[in-house]
Design goal:
68% of the residues lie in helices and 0% in strands. It has 736 residues and is mostly helical. Among the domains are: 7-198, Tetratricopeptide repeat domain (Serine Threonine Protein Phosphatase 5, Tetratricopeptide repeat, Alpha Horseshoe); 206-264; 416-470, no CATH class; 480-509, no CATH class. Helix 15 packs antiparallel against helix 16 (316-329), helix 17 runs parallel beside helix 19 and helix 19 (367-380) runs antiparallel to helix 20. The longest helix has 29 residues, at 175-203. It starts with 6 loop residues before the first helix and ends with a helix. Residues 525-540, 557-590, 636-696 and 710-736 have low confidence and may be disordered.
């Protein structure tokens, strides 16, 4: 479908046809117009090509094919040019034919907002007619007055210009008469001008050159659909307050224009037909449906709507033909069911029964047909025995269909046949696969809760658990009775034996238990490293090539460079961590996942160890949040201290390191500078930070401030000064 209606290819073909001889261009135009029969632009280009070679017969034939379905002003202007070209030199006969052509054109598109040039051309043509005597001159002026008065009442782009011309015309004929006519038509002109201004707002968003293609859901198509709907709603409101006949004509015109762009939209065709029906024009609605099925022959929706209209007006044979056409194209269960219902309505149950006996032999017949006919026999024909026989007949073929079992159970419930209901459930559950039996088990439990005694209720609930979750070990949480069972047992419709908060709490607990059981089953190792190992060994997870793994370094990403004399502890730790992981990743894939936990921060290990094991890429957010809230994760300070304590020693150039008094001692002038700086560090802390441009990583700045506060309170003054100066060096590097 997408290749067939390729808009870009169609545009390219149309451009290529412009430069080809008429014999080569004609097949291209015919191909384009077979796909886009409502494209006024392609029709206009086609007919202009024929007019250029003076092929009048072909031109007339093309106009007869497109004029009444393509109500667009440029195409009709082309038609006027052709008529004038043919008849201008034929004297009075030609003038009469041209006048008829103008009237024919204005009758169809005279209400278009862009029809002003045609009104102006018609007036100019009438003025050019010769008047051999005063009588003919008077007749010409009367004709001009009528055309002017029609034009100034039409909301077009040229309405104000036409009003000025009309005033001048009347004043040139008779000033006294002009005053009365102008005063009479002034309010009508004002109304037309106001409607024009409102109408203009609705058509600004409409793409008049849009090619009609089947809906694809693109944003452009949706914008056009909305714009046309708004425009139609506006016109249906009769904003100009004209009489019903003219308003109806105007709405028809807008619908026809809409279908030029939305030709393949079944909802537009249906709305058009429904509007005709509400307006009392059933015949017009039938014609719309016929055109719709020609435009969209595969639309079952439109066929059903059309058949409904024919049946409503008593045309049974036409409706039957439509149903049979649906069955001929698509022999599916829905078409069979709808035809069954139609036959019962119009011909009786015996005719429907005959068709059912024939339809059940079809390979495309499904359990839906059995359910539909059995329900029809029971509810409409009041024949429970026949319905029971139909369900039993279908049970032989559809014992493994849970929906069929449930519908049969509903039927038996309405018969109050509890013995056969239990027998049906037992037969079905002994046949259905476990993965498809949950819904049937739930209905069985619901039936026992409604009609059984307490012993049978508890027995069926236990059987359901064993069937769906397996017998398992004794004391398994899945087989134990829970408070959720009590809630399910003692609820009714939308009435619950607990509050909504309690119900939500129980649901969350049930979900947590399920995920906990999955985690216990798949891994019994409590430590984070074991959890990572179990995840790594899962066959359902695709892992990247860890040999290419590089630890993210914000300093490198943002272009921060540290001076050789002052590297921060965080940078050293980051480099150490990166080197460890890089070294680990190069040892081969066999020990990669065993080495990763050794280089992972403790806080991250604790977090990973507490995460539940889930299937798929998207875990349940509520479960993850619940686990996190219940976990006792290390704080940021504890993690950082333990991280530094495990061998992350600052570099030798760091003045706060352990070799502060050794061979790497700072020069005398730098030590003096640092002593002066340490005296003012606490007072100027905020000012020093504010004097520097903010680093790219705001979170990192916050961590540096926290680290500075910790060092000041826990170390000696000398150490605190050195430690603070290290971070000052980092900030200086970040700004450089």
């Amino acid at each position: 479908m997408a290749d067939k209606y390729n808009v870009e290819e169609a545009e390219a073909l149309a451009k290529r046809a412009l430069h080809l001889p008429i014999t080569q261009a004609t097949p291209i135009y015919e191909q384009l117009l077979s796909l886009y029969p409502t494209s006024a632009r392609f029709w206009k280009q086609y007919v202009e090509t024929q007019m250029a070679v003076n092929n009048d017969d072909a031109t007339k034939q093309i106009f007869s094919r497109c004029l009444l379905t393509c109500l667009q002003v440029p195409l009709w202007q082309c038609y006027i040019r052709f008529i004038r070209k043919v008849y201008d030199k034929k004297g009075a006969e030609g003038q009469e034919e041209t006048t008829k052509a103008f009237e024919f054109t204005l009758n169809y598109i005279g209400t278009d907002i862009a029809s002003g040039p045609i009104w102006t051309e018609y007036i100019t043509f009438l003025k050019s007619l010769p008047a051999l005597n005063p009588h003919e001159d008077m007749q010409r002026k009367i004709a001009l007055r009528k055309v002017y008065q029609r034009a100034i009442l039409t909301p077009t782009h040229h309405v104000e210009q036409l009003w000025k011309e009309y005033e001048n015309f009347e004043n040139s004929v008779n000033r006294q008469l002009a005053k009365g006519l102008v005063n009479e038509y002034q309010p009508k002109f004002n109304s037309a001008r106001a409607v024009y201004r409102e109408r203009k707002k609705y058509i600004e968003d409409i793409d008049w050159n849009m090619l009609a293609v089947p809906p694809t859901g693109s944003s452009k198509e949706e914008v056009q659909w909305v714009a046309w709907k708004k425009f139609l709603t506006f016109e249906k409101g009769n904003p100009q307050r004209i009489d019903t006949a003219l308003s109806t004509k105007r709405i028809i015109y807008v619908y026809e224009q809409c279908l030029m762009c939305l030709y393949h939209y079944p909802d537009v065709w249906y709305d058009y037909a429904e509007w005709h029906i509400k307006s009392g024009s059933t015949d017009a609605a039938i014609k719309v449906f016929q055109r719709a099925l020609k435009a969209i022959p595969d639309s079952e929706m439109l066929k059903y709507a059309y058949a409904e209209l024919e049946e409503a007006r008593g045309a049974i044979q036409s409706a039957k033909n439509l149903y049979e056409s649906i069955l001929g194209v698509s022999t599916n269960s829905l078409a069979q069911i709808q035809f069954l219902r139609f036959l019962r309505r119009v011909e009786g149950v015996e005719s429907a029964r005959k068709y059912f006996l024939e339809a059940r032999k079809s390979p495309s017949c499904t359990y839906h047909v059995y359910i539909a006919f059995a329900t029809m026999a029971f509810c409409l024909d009041k024949d429970p025995k026949a319905a029971h026989n139909i369900f039993e007949e279908g049970l032989k073929r559809y014992m493994t269909e849970p929906v069929y079992i449930l519908e049969y159970a509903d039927f038996l419930t309405r018969l109050n046949d509890d013995r056969n209901i239990r027998a049906l459930f037992e037969r079905a559950l002994s046949t259905l696969p476990t993965e498809e039996s949950a819904e049937v088990w739930n209905r069985f439990v619901q039936f026992e809760q409604t009609y059984g005694d307490l012993a049978s209720i508890l027995k069926v609930e236990q059987r359901r658990k064993e069937a769906l979750f397996g017998k398992g070990e004794e004391g398994s949480p899945a087989l134990e009775s829970s408070l959720q069972d009590v809630v399910s047992r003692y609820s009714y419709m939308d009435l619950w034996p607990c509050t909504s908060n309690e119900l939500d709490h129980l649901s969350r607990q049930e979900l947590l238990v399920k995920n906990m059981n999955k985690k216990v089953e798949k891994t019994n190792q409590p430590h984070g490293s074991a959890t990572i190992g179990s995840v790594a060994s899962s066959s359902k997870v695709v892992y990247p090539d860890t040999a290419q793994m590089v630890v993210h370094d914000p300093a490198k990403k943002s272009g921060i460079e540290f001076s050789s004399s002052a590297k921060p502890v965080a940078a050293s730790a980051s480099n150490t961590f990166q080197s460890n992981v890089t070294a680990t990743a190069t040892h081969g894939s066999a020990s990669t996942f065993d080495e990763i936990p050794k280089t992972t921060p403790p806080a991250l290990l604790a977090f990973l160890a507490n995460l539940p094991h889930v299937d798929g890429p998207t875990p349940n957010v509520d479960v993850v949040l619940s686990i996190c809230l219940q976990s006792d994760l290390p704080t940021g300070q504890t993690a950082k201290q333990s991280f530094v304590a495990k061998g992350n020693v600052p570099s030798q150039n760091d003045p706060s390191g352990p070799n502060r008094g050794g061979s790497q001692r700072l020069p005398r002038d730098r030590r003096a500078t640092k002593r002066k700086g340490s005296d003012r560090q606490e007072d100027d802390d905020t000012a020093s930070i504010q004097s520097q441009p903010l680093p790219t990583d705001v979170f990192r700045l916050r961590q540096m401030r926290k680290a500075r506060g910790i060092s000041t309170s826990s170390q000696t003054p000398t150490g605190s000064a050195s430690y603070g100066s290290a971070y000052s060096g980092e900030l200086s590097g970040s700004t450089g």
